[in-house]
Amino acid sequence: MSVIETTTMSYVFPAAQCDLDLSLGDKGMLNAITYGGTIASAFMWGFIFDTMGRKRPLIAGFLLDGIFAVLSGFSQNVTFLMVMKFFGGFIMNGPYAALTTYLCELHEGKYRSRMPIFAGLSMSIGTIYLPFLASFILPMNFKLILADYLVLHSWSLFLLLNALPALMGGMIFFFLPETPKFLMTMGRNEQALKVFQMIYSLNTGKPKETYPIKILINEPKANHRNEPESFLLKGWRQISPLFAQPFLGVFILVCSLQLFMTMGQNTLRLWLPQLFQAINDYKFFNNGTSSTLCNMLSVIQPTNETEECFVNFDNSEVYVNSMIVSAVSVVAYVIVTAVVNVLGRNTLLKILGLVASGCAVGIYFSPHSDIALIFIAGFNSLSNIGSKVILVVVVDFFPTTLRTMTVSLVMMCGRGAAMIGNIIFPKLLEMGCGPPFFSMASLFFVCFCLSFLLPKPKENFV
Questions:
Q1: How far apart are alpha carbons 438 and 346 in whole angstroms?
Q2: pLDDT-derived band of residue 396, with 50, 70 and 90 as boundaries?
Q3: Residue 115 clears pLDDT 80, i.e. is over it
Q4: In this structure, what is the dihedral angle of CA atoms 453, 102, 57, 74, given to the nearest 10 degrees?
């Protein structure tokens, strides 16, 4: 659901640029504003999930996100669309961060490191779904007048349909349990045992009563005081351990890694459909011939000439290229899931950072659109996986009562960087072809260097 919330606008831009009179700066802001919403809600959601549990806030988060997605489909101007995307990001930040914790807490230690990567795999599948749906809806180019000030276009329908996954996700969670780990931490062992029995029955097909464990040990309860406290005081008491040893050093390091990696990954990822559209438009205006990537990107750079707004709806290549990039990510996730425990989290991060940096340089030097596509697919896959591996590190190093808060704050750092990156990226494009891609390469080389500072994973937190 998170990938849909952050990525839909990337496919809307080419179709809506005339209807909404979008400039490069507007497109950057529309990409960035969702991340602005996630930053605004990071602290709130972390506190809610670490005190109220995982299930109920997940239900509320997904359903509310679906409602804002529906409202965005009725946008008639850039301002209203930005407001809806901001609130969509505000709501979606919590469920996305908590989903990683939810999956990890439902699995034992030997499978836990794979869960964020499985979540990333599902996101990659979602990135295939988006261009697939866009290839049917956006070229329709219809105009449906519902009222004097309410007109729907093909891109409006695209946004409306993308509300369905969030609404369905919220309904699915009605039938899923709370995590037994959270229940035990809250001292609710009887409820936790019932969840274990249900999972046992589903996995084995045997009756719940045959579950061999009858009594659960008493875990240290989360420190909730009886006297009245303000929301801010409760929140500070919840996160204060992060700013002291033994967590402070690792917390700063994973925040830095997520900051640089997410800035690079989510900036280029959200501009890919626009870059593919530029390649497609160049071929459209040049009798189908290709050229170097820099020559083809010149069609989206602003000029001093006043030109009539034009939308090229003959853009099947845009969606095919997007689906290829996403399919490569799916394959990469499958491979990494199999080798993550063999290589180790830290070694994997080093490999991902260095190779992704090389792919970003390769994009700039691509002599042909097909070569550029190969490097883009490589960069997107490796950077996407890298951001999920960092969440595995968080699960390894932080205890149950801090995990969701830590994930939320770490992702706040990354998304803040992604917001800045999407605002800066169009400025870099206006400067020329080199600055965007060499900037991406530099970010990932820094991640490669920082990964050497990570300590060995601990297994004592469950």
A1: 25
A2: confident
A3: no
A4: 80
**CA–CA dist 237, 225 (Å, integer):** 10
Distance CA 379, CA 363 (A): 9
Q: Are 141 and 154 in contact (CB under 8 A)?
A: yes
At 462 the pLDDT is 40
Alpha helices in 138-240 (DSSP H): 154-161, 164-172, 180-185, 189-204, 231-239
Is the torsion defined by CA of 353, 355, 358, 364 positive or negative?
negative
Q: With contact defined as beta carbons under 8 Å apart, do 415 and 39 qualify?
A: yes
Task: Please report which helix (H) or strand (E) contains residue 151, including its range.
Answer: strand 150-153
Beta carbons of 325 and 403 less than 8 angstroms apart: no
Question: Are the CB atoms for 159 and 12 separated by under 8 Å?
Answer: yes
Please say whether the beta carbons of 4 and 91 come within 8 A. no
Q: What are the backbone angles phi and psi of residue 143, rounded to the nearest 5°?
A: -140, 110
DSSP, collapsed to helix, strand or coil, labels residue 90 as: helix
Q: At 306, phi and psi to the nearest 5?
A: -90, 115
Alpha-carbon distance of 109 to 443, in angstroms, equals 32
Q: Are 151 and 76 in contact (CB under 8 A)?
A: yes
Cα separation of the two ends of the chain: 27
- What is the reported pLDDT for 457? 62
Packing angle, helices 2-16 and 55-72, rounded to 10: 10
| Residues 6 or more apart in contact with residue 389 via CB below 8 angstroms | 116, 117, 336, 340, 345, 348, 349, 352
- Contact at 8 Å (CB) between 158 and 140? no
The model carries a pTM of: 0.75
Q: Tokens for 322? A: 């997007």
∠154-155-161 over CA atoms, to 5°? 90
List the beta bridge partners of residue 152. Answer: 144
Check: CB of residue 101 under 8 Å from CB of residue 120: no
Asked whether the predicted pLDDT for residue 192 surpasses 90, the reply is no
pLDDT higher than threshold 90 for residue 5: no
How many distinct helices (H) and strands (E) make up the chain?
18, 2
For 41, 127, 196, 198, the CA distances from 203, given in Å and listed in that order, are 36, 30, 10, 9
Kindly calculate the radius of gyration of the chain based on its CA atoms and give it in whole angstroms: 23
The pLDDT tens digits for 134-186 are 888 988 878 888 887 888 999 999 999 999 988 998 899 888 888 888 888 77
